[in-house]
């Protein structure tokens, strides 16, 4: 049957293509319009669009971009105080910058690592890495099970070619070449009068190990925020700390923390010994070593441990780190009848290298009015020319404490958490101390009688304290293992080249020749040298004379 040809060829074209070509081919159309005619690709349906998004998301380029974004997104967490680790810093920032605080709060900068935007980037990175790893692992598994690639149809374009004439039998020569290749860890397949071999599977294996370990370390770091916890505590000489929630000065639980995770144990600070040396050039005292002698009680077992900087104490399922130290003057407050209403050591926070320190004493009960003491402690007090006190040594050679004394409502009954190192002096009445004409300067054993017969203050004795952080991180082992495999995978990937080698018999029966051919995946400047060594080693094993062509 004869075919019928349509009179108008454009009727065979799709409608959209016919529209484009008709405008493009029209002699009346401007030349610019004909050259710049849009190229219209096929429209993507919902399923095709999802597939396209998945291909883009699971590409290695996207994974690298997301990894860089995670690094940049972490920067606010180190520049802006975080509620999880520094709630006091967040409060200070709010008071100092109320307007900027509102903006930061709106974009979750105070909760960087749990924010919606950081979590989204982190989740996309996981999906991208896993989407890259799974298909590549399956493909690599098939490659590992497959035989080396077949001999190419044309050897002309191979980057490495070498021919050698041998007088030994070709079978014997191939046997020796096969032995050399196997000793060099090539996978070898013998096909009669030819050999095909492949080397360097470790490169892709190392690459996959690197990316799998990267997922592992990201997973363990994410789990730290869920299962880990940390807390801080000031321990004064002679006092004990018990590992229970109420004993912490501040505590930062993970998302899935339960109080049952706190293993029971106790730590008592027996003594604290610092060592200092004086820099003769800068004329300042520099710390050399800090040693805290503590007694650890776990169940019925008791042991003495020396806690040092960077040498944490391991107790229960947590580690205790030595972070800071200072002095804790023992302050005794009595009422007019001599009854003790306050008698305990108070930690003063150091302000300089000579341990000039500040502290606050709050006496809410026992007197006719609530009493607040704003103190300044000088371990080695000296009088300056201005008449002010200063400390010239971090050792307590002349311990002296001065107080500004206030009365009034301390705000302890308001139901709002108050900073133990601050006094609401704006709402209090100062009765002694600076600017009142009544100085309160005490050495150990000195007593000061409060104005108006309110009572007395005594600087009884001096103790030291340490600041410790107790931390539980169940992911340390996972991070260490993942880090090891990241380094191992990276070294394997960078130090291995994927190479293919083919050997075949050429020449005639009287003048047999062996021809080597090789290639490498990617750039390999050492290909020729590496394959030359294999050929030379093969030739050295032949007992017959070999004449290079």
From TrEMBL:
Membrane topology listed for this record: Multi-pass membrane protein
Disordered as annotated region, ranges: 1-37
Cellular localisation: Membrane
UniProt-listed Pfam families: ResB
GO cellular component: membrane
Gene Ontology biological-process entries: cytochrome complex assembly
InterPro entries documented for this protein: Cyt_c_bgen_Ccs1/CcsB/ResB, ResB-like_domain
Composition bias, Basic and acidic residues: 28-37
Transmembrane spans: 52-75, 116-135, 208-229, 478-496
Keywords noted in UniProt: Cytochrome c-type biogenesis, Membrane, Transmembrane, Transmembrane helix
Protein name: Unannotated protein
Source species of the chain: freshwater metagenome
Lineage: unclassified sequences, metagenomes, ecological metagenomes
């Amino acid at each position: 049957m004869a075919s019928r040809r349509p009179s108008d060829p454009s009727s065979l074209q799709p409608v959209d293509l016919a529209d484009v070509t008709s405008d493009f081919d029209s002699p009346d159309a401007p030349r610019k319009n004909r050259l710049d005619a849009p190229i219209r690709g096929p429209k993507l349906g919902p399923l095709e669009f999802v597939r396209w998004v998945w291909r883009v998301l699971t590409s290695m380029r996207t994974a690298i971009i997301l990894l860089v974004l995670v690094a940049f997104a972490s920067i606010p967490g180190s520049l802006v105080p975080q509620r999880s680790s520094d709630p006091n810093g967040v409060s200070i920032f709010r008071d100092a910058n109320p307007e900027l605080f509102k903006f930061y709060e709106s974009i979750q900068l105070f909760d960087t690592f749990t924010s919606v935007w950081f979590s989204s980037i982190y989740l996309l990175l996981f999906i991208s890495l896993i989407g890259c790893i799974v298909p590549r692992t399956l493909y690599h598994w098939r490659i590992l099970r497959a035989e080396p690639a077949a001999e190419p149809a044309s050897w002309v374009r191979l980057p490495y070619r070498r021919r050698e004439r041998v007088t030994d039998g070709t079978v014997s020569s191939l046997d020796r070449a096969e032995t050399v290749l196997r000793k060099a860890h090539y996978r070898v397949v013998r096909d009669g009068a030819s050999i095909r071999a492949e080397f360097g599977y470790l490169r892709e294996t190392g690459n996959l190990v690197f990316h799998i370990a990267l997922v592992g370390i990201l997973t363990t770091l994410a789990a730290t925020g869920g299962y880990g916890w940390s807390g801080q505590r000031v321990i004064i000489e002679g006092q004990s700390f018990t590992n229970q929630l109420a004993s912490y000065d501040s505590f930062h639980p993970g998302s899935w923390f339960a109080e049952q995770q706190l293993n029971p144990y106790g730590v008592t600070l027996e003594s604290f010994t610092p060592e200092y040396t004086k820099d003769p050039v800068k004329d300042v005292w520099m710390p050399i070593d800090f040693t805290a002698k503590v007694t650890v009680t776990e169940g019925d077992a008791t042991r003495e441990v020396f806690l040092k900087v960077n040498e944490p104490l391991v107790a229960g399922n947590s580690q205790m780190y030595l972070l800071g130290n200072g002095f804790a003057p023992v302050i005794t407050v009595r009422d007019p009848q001599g009854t003790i209403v306050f008698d305990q050591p108070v930690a003063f926070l150091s302000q300089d290298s000579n341990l000039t320190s500040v502290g606050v004493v709050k006496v809410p009960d026992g007197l006719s009015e609530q009493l607040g003491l704003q103190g300044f402690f000088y371990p080695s007090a000296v009088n300056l020319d201005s008449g002010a006190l200063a400390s010239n040594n971090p050792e307590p050679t002349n311990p002296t404490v001065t107080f500004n004394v206030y009365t009034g409502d301390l705000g302890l009954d308001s139901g709002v958490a108050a900073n133990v190192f601050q006094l609401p002096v704006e709402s209090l009445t100062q009765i002694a101390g600076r600017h009142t004409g009544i100085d309160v300067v005490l050495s150990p054993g000195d007593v000061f009688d409060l104005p108006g017969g309110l009572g007395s203050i005594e600087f009884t004795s001096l103790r030291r304290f340490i600041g410790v952080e107790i931390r539980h991180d169940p992911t340390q082992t996972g991070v260490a293992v993942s880090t090891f495999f990241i380094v191992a995978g990276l070294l394997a990937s960078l130090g291995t080249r994927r190479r293919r080698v083919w050997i075949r018999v050429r020449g005639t029966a009287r003048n047999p020749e062996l021809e080597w051919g090789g290639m490498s995946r990617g750039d390999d400047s050492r290909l020729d040298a590496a394959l030359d060594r294999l050929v030379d080693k093969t030739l050295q094993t032949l007992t017959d004379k070999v004449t290079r062509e």
